[in-house]
Write a structure and sequence with these properties.
Layout: H1 6-17, E1 22-28, E2 33-40, E3 51-52, E4 62-66, E5 72-77, H2 85-123, H3 127-141, E6 147-154, E7 159-166, E8 176-177, H4 182-190, E9 194-196, H5 199-205, H6 211-220, E10 226-236, E11 239-249, H7 257-305, H8 310-320, E12 324-329, E13 334-336, H9 346-353, E14 360-365, E15 369-379, E16 382-390, H10 397-437, H11 441-450, E17 458-466, H12 472-489, E18 494-500, E19 503-510, H13 515-533, E20 538-542, E21 546-547, H14 552-569, E22 573-576, H15 591-608, H16 610-621, H17 626-633, H18 637-651, H19 658-674
Parallel strand pairs: 20-22
Antiparallel strand pairs: 1-2, 1-5, 2-3, 4-5, 6-7, 6-11, 7-8, 9-10, 10-11, 12-13, 12-16, 14-15, 15-16, 17-19, 17-20, 17-21, 18-19
């Protein structure tokens, strides 16, 4: 293909400069060599495919024409020739098509490489392979760009690391730049391209590079002479992914703005390749998570259907997640697997969780610092348990998924256990009421033996009431937990225990009445601990000890009366029926009735003088001893006598009348007990 008008050039040279024979050479800056183009009237045989890196520089018999982008055309004449400026300019334009041909050919190569890069991106998802091909394309289209490296930001270590390189030694892989360190770190930080047209300026810009990185760069250096250093940011959707760095060989032509644009285009291909690889990795990871989720679901479903219980599920979760997972049943205060170290008590876990529903991290300083993920497990509105995962945060998505699925199945197991407990409570509740009715005592006795209680022994009933619960689900959970607490504290005692609404009922079988003292102290301890940790009021009434099934209704009724007495006084705690004393006579009267009786006595005194009420109460407390009463009130004995006489007049009674004295004593007792 003819690149220029050969006949026109030949005619012009012959006419204006008497030149008949010459050779035409083109210097290609990308290839850094001279290419033989043509010869007019051959004076020396030259093959059409000759390439030379240098040509003899003799000004007498040659003409050099400079074109843009460091392209040059050289005419070598057979004899000496003198060419003036006007002739030179005309020859320049006559040969310009040769320059245009080669530049267009270079552009075609650049376009082919860009298209090849796009094809590679769509044809492969191997990021390392793609980056290597893109760096090869950089070398093919950018003059002298035989040395290059791509630096990818790694958020896990907050460093720029060398993801791919060309022309460097392997030590470059160990270099890790901080953001803002060296030219690469600065380009990543501000997103601005940088071009240095001397190695000295590039070195000056690298000031601040860490000593370790500088030593690694020196070991990795290719030892070639560098004409220019270029760094451009690699962006995707305004997010900087990394930096492309290039060293240009010293023999290559100077980089043009077009070259910089090409570098940016190739950097964009790197960004797309990274994003595609990231998307592929993410899709692959999500697919693996879904596959694993199905495996986890199948495994846990199998355990649940086989009724293996929470222990088996906790063991399976430990197989899936390392280093360890502990399940804590907060209602029954059990840890699974049981051999695991207990880093937190149940009380601590209750405080940590409080009303939280979402997982949270907590740190604990033991021998060393440890971090735990606490995953609350709710059954309805009740936090019935939690998973404790030991490990460095944050958990990966797969681990989160396993914990989440495990929490769901453990919640189902706890709900199942709760339902079983409800059925058991119903069974014991019905049996207990049959005992109260005492029909077929022989059959009831045998049933008691099957339930682990000998009802021919000494028996005593205890009734506990939990107050101030609006949420029935929370109440049921607390009752279940309280029943479990009793079973744990009274393991050696033969008993029946069940919960019903806000009450827990116990029937104890004792070998000796002396055992009741231990029972009472145990209940006082349980109630004190619960009232402090759970912040609720508990009332416990204990009946008297009797023997045999016929007496169960008696001790039950007494426990109810003792409980009612505590409630009427609004005093939480434990009381035995035998401790109520004279108040037993008034249990059938409401607190309102008793206070009304008290007011009938003290109201007239209120209306006259406040000190008279205090005097009367103190007088009765001191067993009507004038001396003790006067001393207690810090008044003269005569003043006391005057007050007593005044009280008798106001109340229209005499302290010499036994019936009046009893009336006053009861009023004082009720005032102290019920107000």
């Amino acid at each position: 293909m003819e690149m220029y008008n050969r006949s026109l050039l030949q005619s012009y040279l012959k006419k204006t400069a008497a030149i008949t024979a010459c050779q035409i050479w083109m210097y290609h800056p990308m290839e850094q060599r001279w290419i033989f183009i043509d010869q007019l009237e051959p004076f020396k045989h030259i093959s059409s495919h000759v390439f030379l890196h240098t040509l003899p520089e003799t000004s007498d018999n040659c003409l050099i024409l400079e074109y843009p982008q460091e392209y040059r055309v050289k005419l070598v004449f057979k004899t000496k020739a003198l060419v003036d400026q006007e002739t030179k300019e005309i020859i320049y334009h006559l040969l310009h098509p040769i320059y245009s041909y080669f530049t267009m050919k270079s552009k075609d190569i650049e376009l082919d490489k860009l298209i090849e890069g796009i094809k590679n991106i769509t044809a492969s998802l191997d990021l390392d392979e793609l980056l290597t091909k893109i760096l090869d394309n950089v070398a093919a289209v950018i003059p002298g760009a035989n040395t290059s490296a791509f630096w990818l930001y790694n958020p896990a270590i907050d460093r720029l690391v060398c993801k791919a390189y060309r022309g460097w030694q392997a030590e470059i892989e160990k270099v890790q730049y901080k953001i803002g360190e060296s030219v690469t770190g600065k380009t990543y930080r501000d997103g601005k391209p940088r071009v240095y047209y001397s190695f000295r300026k590039a070195n000056e810009a690298m000031k601040g590079t860490s000593k370790s990185n500088a030593e690694l760069l020196k070991a990795a250096f290719h030892n070639g002479r560098v004409k220019a250093t270029v760094t451009v940011p690699v962006n995707f959707h305004d997010e900087i992914k990394g930096v492309l760095g290039i060293h240009q060989d010293s023999e290559a032509r100077r980089l043009t703005e077009w070259d910089i644009q090409l570098i940016k285009a190739l950097a964009a291909q790197i960004a797309i390749a990274i994003e595609n690889a990231h998307m592929f990795t993410e899709i692959k990871r999500k697919n693996q998570v879904l596959i694993k989720r199905n495996e986890v679901h199948a495994s846990l479903t199998k355990l649940s259907l086989q009724n293996k219980g929470v222990g088996a599920i906790a063991a399976e979760l430990n197989r899936m997640i390392k280093p360890s997972v502990t399940f804590v049943d907060l209602l029954e205060e059990e840890y699974y697997p049981k051999m695991h170290k207990q880093y937190f008590t149940v009380e601590e876990l209750y405080k940590f969780i409080s009303h939280r529903h979402m997982p949270f991290y907590i740190e604990k300083y033991d021998i060393d610092e440890k971090t735990f993920l606490i995953y609350p497990i709710y059954v309805g509105n009740v936090c019935a348990g939690c998973l404790i995962v030991l490990g460095e945060p944050p958990l990966v998505q797969l681990e989160h998924m396993i914990v989440e699925r495990g929490g769901v199945f453990l919640s189902l197991e706890l709900a199942k256990r709760h339902s079983i407990a409800e059925v058991y409570y119903k069974k014991i509740h019905d049996y207990y009421h049959e005992l109260l009715n005492n029909e077929h005592s022989d059959l009831l006795y045998k049933q008691g033996l099957d339930l682990g209680i000998d009802l021919n022994n000494h028996v005593v009933s205890i009734i506990v009431e939990l107050s101030n619960f609006q949420d029935l689900q929370v109440l049921e959970a607390k009752v279940h937990h309280f029943v479990w607490t009793i079973k744990q504290r009274l393991t050696e005692t033969s008993k029946l225990v069940f919960g019903n609404h806000n009450k827990v009922t116990l029937l104890l079988s004792l070998d000796s009445p002396a055992e009741l003292l231990f029972i009472v102290k145990t209940f006082e301890s349980i109630l004190a601990s619960w009232q402090q940790s759970e912040n609720i009021k508990l009332y416990a009434g204990i009946g008297r000890i009797y023997c045999g099934i016929p007496s169960i209704s008696k001790t039950h009724n007494e426990a109810e009366k003792a409980l009612y007495y505590l409630q009427s006084k609004q005093t939480s705690g434990v009381i035995q029926y035998s401790e109520i004393g004279i108040n037993r006579l008034f249990l059938n009267h409401t607190a309102t009735e008793l206070l009304q009786f008290t007011e009938e006595i003290f109201s007239p005194l209120h209306q006259k003088q406040q000190e008279l009420e205090e005097t009367l109460i103190t007088y009765i407390k001191c067993n009507r001893s004038a001396t003790k009463t006067a001393a207690t009130l810090h008044v003269h004995i005569n003043t006391l006598y005057q007050r007593i006489k005044r009280i008798e007049e106001i109340l229209n009674l005499s302290f010499e009348d036994p019936e009046n004295i009893l009336k006053i004593q009861l009023a004082c007792h009720f005032k102290e007990a019920y107000t």
